[in-house]
Every structure is written in C-alpha cells, then in structure tokens.
Amino acid sequence: MEQRGAYTPTPPPAWTPRTDPAPLLPDAEPYRVLGTPAAREADPELLRRLHTALVRGRRYNTQATALTKQGRLAVYPSSTGQEACEIGAAFALEERDWLFPSYRDTLAVIARGVDPVETLTLLRGDWHTGYDPYEHRVAPLSTPLATQLPHAVGLAHAARLKGDDVVALAMVGDGGTSEGDFHEALNFAAVWRSPVVFLVQNNGFAISVPLDKQTAAPSLAHKAVGYGMRGRLVDGNDALAVHEVLTEAVRHARAGGGPTLVEALTYRVEAHTNADDAGRYRAPTDGDAWRAHDPVALVEAELTARGLLDADTLEAVRADAETMAADLRARMNQDAPLDPMDLFAHVYAEPTPQLREQEAQLRAEIAAAAEDRPEGTPR
Questions:
Q1: Where exactly are the transmembrane stretches of this chain (predicted)?
Q2: Which among 94, 200, 239, 309 is least surrounded, fewest beta carbons within 10 Å?
Q3: pLDDT range class, residue 293, cuts 50, 70, 90
C-alpha cells in the first residue's frame, strides 16, 4: 500500500559522454609494418638507420651486461629484444623535444646523442646523472617507477604556456602503469591537453610479476580511454611500426591534439637485471615465439628482400658495433676520478649550516688520515 507523502525520485538528466570514446580506442590487433606490403613503401635510408642503431644497441646490451660481471657496473637492466622500442622512441623526436627515460632505456638515451659511457654513469654508481640533461634534452634515467611521467607532463605543459614548440616523450614499463604517478601524469596530461606522448614497453613482466597479475584491462592501451586520450597498440619488435606510430603521436601532440598513450608489445629476453634470476618465474622456452620475432632480424629480412643489405654491408654494420663496444670497454675499465667533496657540492644551492659542518668534518678526517700515512705511501 502506497504511503502518504511517499517520495518519488525524479529520473536523472539525460547523459551523454563528454568525449566520444570510439576514436580513443586502440585497434584490436597491434599495428605492424614489417612483413606486410606496407613495408615496401618505407624509406630505404630510414630502414638503414634503424638497422644500424638496432645492431649497435644489441651489442651495447651484451657489452654492458659483461661489464657487470667484471665489476665495472653495479647493475644493468638489459633491453635485449626491446631495441625497436628504444630506437623508435629516439628517432621519433625532433632535436628540440625532450625524452624522459626509465632505467632500462639506455639505448634511447644513446640514440639521442648522449655519450655511451656517460649513459652508464648512474648505473656505475658514480655521482648524479652522468650527463647534462640540457645538452641533448634527455632527462635523467629514472630508477623509481613512473616518477618521470609527471615531470614530462610538467615540462610539456610549461613549454606550451611559454609558446615553445616542444613535445615530451615519456617511456615506462608495464610495471610502471601500476604506480600512482602513472595515473596522475595521464590525468593531468589529458586535462591540460599537454604535448606529451607516453610509451609503455609491455615486456610481459614487472620483474617477476606477469601482466595478468597487474591488470584485467583488455590492453594497457585501453587505459587511455579512461583519461580521455587516444590509445595505440603497436608491435614493439617492429621498428618501422614503432617509429611510425610514435612519429604520428608526436606530430599530433605538437599540433595541439593532446597526449597519446602507446603500448608497445615486446618481450624481455634477458633477466630484469643482472641481479635477477628469471629462471625462478619463467621457463627457458617461454620466450621462443618472441625470439623468432627478433627486432634486428625483422629489419634485416626486409632490407635483404629489397636488395638493400648484402654480406659486405652487414659486416660493416657489425664491425662498427664492435668498435663501439671496444671503446666502451676500454673507457669503462678506467677508474673514474672521485672527489669526496662532491658529496656536498650539489645538495643545496646555498649550503645549510649542517652541511658545511659535515664538509668541514670530512676535510679534517681526510687531512688527519694523510698525516698518519707512512712516508712514500701513495695518497
């Protein structure tokens, strides 16, 4: 029986999405070029540049990994198998743009022009970044997960406010998408329509955690829709496809179209770092399908099919990579000059009283140790 004075709610106002989600959705299948008819239209010079950079990157990874075993590097997170993501990211940017790498993105940093030894300085355990971020517009390698993403958004937003024609490309792994900084960066970027591109290298694992333990989303690219930006899904081992998708995303951002989230599907062939035992959570055969889809081999097959790569040219490219590795080896085997006073030189613009006191104390201890050193002992 209806009660007297019963409240009958009115229906809510008609609702429509603020943004049509259809254009934001990624394709059902990862975008690819190599192995399709579209590859025949690719610029031969671009193919050669990609191939040379991929071969050098593969050799750099093996050499840096060897340096960890020799005690010359504290840690190295190899990107073997992911080289196409690294090189594609660097090649998509103009000189005036900024790259915000994660700790695994050494190849992208080098492809931007940073010295190979300086790129490894942070991973060697030396002071600070190892390179001048402003020289090549490359932010420091970020070891904390996803913290570089809000920085990229801030720089891109500030550049637009100043009228600078700059795009920021921020790289992160699939594990980084589970961090709060990822959410904050994408939300701010979409609201402000900042000229920034997010590249997620989905290599299957956040250290030992597989993707299905991190997210139930159809893909990481689908997360873009929730923030109101475009999502793209690309074959991360296809250097041409990665380059094309990222170049278009950078162009879109520069034209005022807002940010794009690109998910590159790839595979981490080696362990998370030299300190990781991938055998505890992966079977040796788990990556066989990805090894057969190797980014270097894909480009070489296309070059060979088009008559752009012969045995002599391939040998020259590999010899160039060996020269780079030998130079890296020789320079990394030199002990870096260390000054203990650097501990205090770059903490504050104006040193605090406590810092000055600590500096004076260390100077006194070093002087006292020198006085106690026997005659003729190297100082």
A1: none
A2: 94
A3: very high
